[in-house]
Design a protein that fits this description.
The complex is a heterodimer of chains A (376) and B (311). Chain A is mainly α and 376 residues long. In chain A, 74% of the residues lie in helices and 0% in strands. In chain B, helix 3 packs antiparallel against helix 4 and helix 11 runs antiparallel to helix 12. Chains A and B meet through helix 6, helix 7, helix 12, helix 14 and helix 15 of A and helix 4, helix 10 and helix 12 of B.
């Protein structure tokens, strides 16, 4: 028990120190620009967390981010680089926005939501099949293929929204708008929609599957040591494809929730680019789903509160990107210091690192060499 | 449709393609060098943006395009030093650090631009072009390829130089060894970290120059996030070039042309959504990968930190 408490404490320190350093560095940036950093940060906290409307907005922002995190964790745990989150997310969003308004008449509100979310999930899952198969059967590096599929996915989403899904109403290219009453239901008297429940269920489910079931164990085995997984009789090819599909499906569901919960419609060139932000967050949580949930919450507060604070201080809200990026860099350095002090392995599972140099030679590197007795 | 192959269209297509290809070429070439040495530089997009902003500021302040380009390279190299320190020296994960660099560069360039130039939005005068004597008289190609800013010809020279460096010099051999089998390089008495350091700085120089070209020559101004994922496209180009520098020209032109074809079509009165066209090179690459899927086409120690004495 004490060991557990110690590790949790250590983990908190490992998050707090870099966050503090990043806040100081960004604060210096604000001072250089002649703004008051204390004012900025207190505004950020107040408007992102302490005031009721901001708090609600932060919770709403968490839903898509949590679903993306859940999807990424599955892939990364299995040692697969899914860097195509943005394409998967936007395809899910485009299909949800394009189909929901026309389904609602025939299916009614609830059934429409369920069906549309299912379709979005399937689309996201199918979108990963090409990189997954290329990786599983031919060893083609998935970093490059998922990135490319992401660019294609973003373009396809826009083609759909400007073409078959386009509304007859003039003006900007966008889909029909789902009436407010047919969107995801609100929780009680709040503005928070049921998307957060879906997202929390997803992230907890991913955590349980990863830590408590044999499926999770197999995935982690694949991630930690692909060769051992193969020797242990794991159908690695099938696992790779299914993992990719689950990952893409969850991320696309995030896109659907964003549309069905908040916007109700997809405007051409809509792209919040959440993918690049969530990737570092899940890494910093060491691919632990629950810990990622806390980091996502913190990020949502920073983003919602920060946008408001930036407006008030009259600086670009892109300062938040710098803040998050700096947290990430300082976190990696803190990790390095800790690793040096305790000689503990780095947080990145060896499988993930190995994947990048996916050739057999890279695996050989990490294998102990046979002693060469009697051959010289 | 018969308008399609008129001189206007082809000139616009090729000229626009070359224009759009240059940032991809410089950044892709730099990335290829660092990938060959085993450093996967995901921060390329950030280095391009930093270079674009730095070049813009210097070009505005001094009025010199060339100083701007030099400043872009210097800033790109400066940002790559972060990568050197964290990834090459401290052996931290290259992808996590790369994304961190992209976010910080996006944030800081946008913030600084917003604070200093958003109100005035200054523009640079069009950079002078240089017509190659004689060749510029050739129809279509003359106006598109042989009438460009001199940096375009320098770019082609750079590709040849990098190719020579990688394939014909011992420095190039060391570089490739650092990516394929760093332990062997170490055993041969060459410092792996130092080799990778130079390669990473090379990527920074290339990305910085690519970004500088984008702001100072192609756009004549800076806008936040102006690289729009070109750093990631450059990574794809570098991976597809697989260590053969001339392939970066092919890759950069393929992606550059597809960025310019929509504009060229509009010139002859055909309206086509850029979304379709921009997908094409990616689809082409995916199809090629599906048809000719190969097992290993990246340096085997790519993105793996080298720890001395570890097997």
């Amino acid at each position: 028990m004490r060991a557990h408490a110690g590790r949790a404490g250590e983990a908190i320190v490992a998050v707090l120190i870099p966050a503090l350093l990043a806040l100081i560095a960004t604060g210096l940036l604000l001072v250089i620009l002649g703004r008051d950093p204390i004012q900025f940060y207190s505004d950020m906290l107040e408007r992102g967390l302490l005031e009721w409307p901001g708090f609600q907005e932060s919770v709403i922002r968490m839903s898509p981010l949590l679903l993306i995190a859940a999807g990424l964790i599955i892939a990364f745990r299995a040692g697969l680089w899914n860097l195509g989150a943005d394409g998967q997310f936007l395809l899910g969003a485009a299909f949800a926005a394009g189909l929901a308004p026309s389904f609602v008449g025939a299916l009614g509100s609830t059934l429409t939501l369920v069906v549309v979310m299912a379709i979005a999930t399937v689309v996201g899952a199918l979108w990963t099949v090409v990189p997954a198969v290329l990786r599983a059967w031919y060893g083609v590096n998935e970093i490059i293929t998922t990135l490319m599929m992401s660019f294609i996915g973003i373009a396809v989403a826009n083609v759909l929204v400007k073409g078959p899904f386009r509304t007859d109403v003039g003006g900007v290219a966008r889909t029909d708008t789902l009436p407010l009453d047919d969107r995801l239901p609100l929780l009680g008297d709040t503005q928070i929609n049921a998307g957060i429940i879906i997202a929390v269920v997803a992230i907890v489910a991913v955590h349980l599957v990863m830590t408590r079931t044999s499926v999770g164990f197999r995935l982690r085995m694949l991630g930690e040591n692909p060769r051992a997984a193969d020797h242990a009789g794991l159908h690695t090819k099938r696992v790779i494809v299914l993992t990719f599909m689950a990952s893409g499906g969850l991320i696309a569901l995030g896109g659907a929730v964003e549309i069905l919960g908040i916007w109700g419609s997809f405007r051409a060139d809509f792209n919040p680019a959440f993918g690049l932000i969530v990737i570092p967050l899940v890494f910093l949580a060491r691919l632990n789903a629950i810990a990622s949930g806390f980091l996502v919450a913190a990020f949502a507060v920073i983003q919602i509160g920060g946008e408001s604070a930036a407006r008030k201080s009259d600086v670009s809200s892109d300062i938040l990107l710098a803040l998050v990026g700096l947290i990430l860099l300082f976190m990696a350095v803190t990790e390095w210091v800790r690793a040096r002090r305790s000689a503990r392995p780095l947080y990145l599972s060896p499988g993930l690192a190995e994947t990048i140099g996916a050739s057999p030679a890279a695996t050989d590197e990490s294998r102990p060499a046979q002693p060469s007795v009697g051959t010289g | 449709m018969e308008d399609l192959f008129t001189e206007t269209f082809l000139t616009a297509l090729v000229a626009g393609g070359v224009l759009a290809a240059m940032p991809l070429l410089f950044a892709g070439l730099g990335e290829m060098v660092s990938e060959q040495a085993g450093v996967l530089n995901v921060g390329l997009e950030g280095m391009m943006l930093a270079g674009a902003y730095g070049a813009f500021v210097i070009a505005i302040e001094t009025g010199s395009t060339w100083l701007g380009l030099a400043a872009g390279m210097a800033i790109g190299a400066l940002v790559s030093l972060v990568m050197v320190l964290l990834c090459v020296r401290m052996k931290l994960d290259q992808i996590v650090i790369g994304i961190g660099i992209v976010l910080v560069a996006e944030g800081i360039t946008s913030l600084l631009f917003d604070a200093k130039y958003a109100a005035s939005r200054p523009r640079l005068p069009a950079a002078p072009e240089w017509a190659v004597p004689g060749f510029s008289e050739i129809p279509v190609l003359g106006e598109s390829i042989f009438t460009q800013h001199p940096i375009v010809y320098i770019g082609v020279g750079l590709v040849i130089a990098v190719h020579y460096l990688l394939r014909r010099t011992s420095a190039g051999l060391s570089l490739r060894a650092a990516g394929e089998k760093p332990a062997a390089l170490d055993a041969a008495g060459v410092n792996v970290d130092r080799t990778r350091t130079w390669a990473t700085i090379g990527a920074g120089l290339g990305a910085g120059l690519g970004g500088a070209y984008l702001s100072v020559i192609a756009a004549g101004t800076f806008t936040p996030f102006m690289t729009q994922g070109q750093g990631f496209i450059a990574i794809v180009i570098a991976m597809l070039a697989r260590g053969t520098a001339p392939w970066t020209i092919v890759g950069a032109l393929l992606f550059g042309m597809s960025l310019s074809v929509a504009t060229a079509l509009q010139l002859v009165g055909i309206q086509i959504s850029t979304d379709y066209v921009q997908m094409l090179p990616f689809i082409a690459v995916i199809v090629v990968l599906v048809l000719f899927a190969r097992r290993s086409y990246l340096p085997s120690a790519l993105a793996l930190p080298y720890h001395r004495g570890e097997r």
